[in-house]
Specification:
The protein has ten helices and ten strands. With about 250 residues, the chain is an alpha/beta fold. It folds into two domains: about 40 residues; about 200 residues, 3-Layer(aba) Sandwich (Rossmann fold). Strands 3-2-1-4-5-9-8-10 form an eight-stranded mixed beta sheet, with helices on both faces. A two-stranded antiparallel sheet has the order 6-7. Strand 4, helix 8 and strand 5 form a beta-alpha-beta unit. It is globular. The relative contact order is 0.14. It binds S-adenosylmethionine. The site of S-adenosylmethionine has 19 residues, from strand 1 and helix 5.
Length: about 250
C-alpha cells in the first residue's frame, strides 16, 4: 500500500516536471513519449495550466451559455480539449498547426466522435468551419484561444474574425494580461504583450470585456491571466457569474 502510494506520488512529481521541461522538445519526441508512457500527460496534468479557479470559471461559463459547440485554437497535447469535452459533452473543434501534436491529439481522441482535430493554422480552421457551417452563426459558440506560441501571433485575427462572424459567442483568451492584477502571468512576444491594447477596439468590437474574479494569489497552478469577451447577446448570461467581473466598456 505504502509502495503504491509512493509510486503514484513519484509519477505525479515527474509528470508535473515533464510538462514544463518537454515544451522545448521536438513534438515528435513528445508524441513518442506520450504514446509509450501515456501517464506522463495523463490525469496528473491538469487543464488550463493546473488553475482550479479557471477550471471552475469554465464549468460555470459552459453551464450558463450551453454552447452548441466549442472551438479551441492550439491543441498541444489535448489537456484542455479533454476538459471541454468532459465538461460539456458538446462537439469540440480543436485546431493545431503542428502536424505531430495534431496527430498525437487525434490519436488520443480517436474513439471520441465529438472531438475533431483540425491540422491547420487556427485562422484557416475558423474560416473552414464557418464555410462548412460546422459552427452555425445562429448558435452560441465558445471559443478558447490558446495558439500563441510562436512569433506569428494569430490572436488578433482570430478575435476579429469571431467578433464579426458569430453574434452569439464567448471568447476566452489564455496568457492574457489582467491589468489590475499583477500576480497573473501573460505572454510577451518581443515588444508585444497579450493585452487589450494589442487586440484593439476594432477587433473586440461591441463585445463585453470580463476579467476573472479570483485574485491571482488565490489561484492555483501556473497563474496565467485570461480575458473573457462576450457578445452583446450572450453577455447578460455571464455578468452575474461569481467567477467573472466586468471590465471596461471600451478599450481606451
Ligand atoms: C499553449 S499550447 C496549447 C495548450 C492547450 N490549449 C492546453 O491547454 O493544453 C499552444 C499550441 O498552439 C499551437 N499553435 C501555434 N500557432 C498556431 C496556429 N497559428 N494555429 C494553430 N495552432 C497553433 C502550438 O503548436 C501549440 O501546440
Amino acid at each position: 500500500m505504502f509502495l503504491q502510494s509512493a509510486a503514484t506520488h513519484l509519477k505525479s512529481v515527474i509528470a508535473a516536471q515533464y510538462d514544463s521541461v518537454s515544451r522545448s522538445w521536438h513534438p515528435s519526441v513528445a508524441e513518442l513519449i506520450g504514446v509509450t508512457a501515456p501517464w506522463l500527460d495523463g490525469p496528473w496534468l491538469e487543464p488550463f495550466n493546473g488553475q482550479h479557479a479557471r477550471q471552475q470559471l469554465f464549468r460555470s461559463l459552459l453551464a450558463a451559455v450551453e454552447p452548441y459547440a466549442i472551438f479551441e485554437s492550439g491543441s498541444y497535447r489535448g489537456a484542455s480539449t479533454r476538459f471541454f469535452w468532459h465538461t460539456s459533452g458538446k462537439p469540440v473543434y480543436t485546431a493545431e498547426k503542428n502536424r505531430n501534436f495534431a496527430r498525437y491529439v487525434g490519436r488520443r481522441f480517436r474513439h471520441v466522435p465529438e472531438v475533431k482535430v483540425i491540422n491547420r493554422d487556427s485562422r484557416e480552421a475558423l474560416s473552414l468551419l464557418h464555410q462548412g457551417d460546422h459552427l452555425p452563426v445562429s448558435e452560441c459558440i465558445v471559443f478558447y484561444l490558446d495558439a500563441h506560441w510562436n512569433e506569428d501571433l494569430p490572436l488578433r485575427e482570430e478575435v476579429e474574425f469571431i467578433t464579426r462572424t458569430w453574434p452569439s459567442s464567448v471568447i476566452v483568451i489564455d496568457d492574457f494580461k489582467v491589468p489590475d492584477d499583477e500576480g497573473y502571468g501573460f505572454d510577451v512576444y518581443g515588444t508585444v504583450e497579450l493585452s487589450l491594447e494589442y487586440l484593439g477596439a476594432e477587433a473586440v468590437g461591441p463585445f463585453q470585456i470580463l476579467w476573472p474574479s479570483c485574485r491571482a494569489e488565490r489561484e492555483t497552478g501556473y497563474r496565467r491571466g485570461c480575458v473573457v469577451l462576450a457578445s452583446p447577446k450572450v453577455a447578460p448570461c455571464l455578468t452575474d457569474l461569481p467567477e467573472l467581473r466586468r471590465g471596461p466598456d471600451a478599450i481606451g
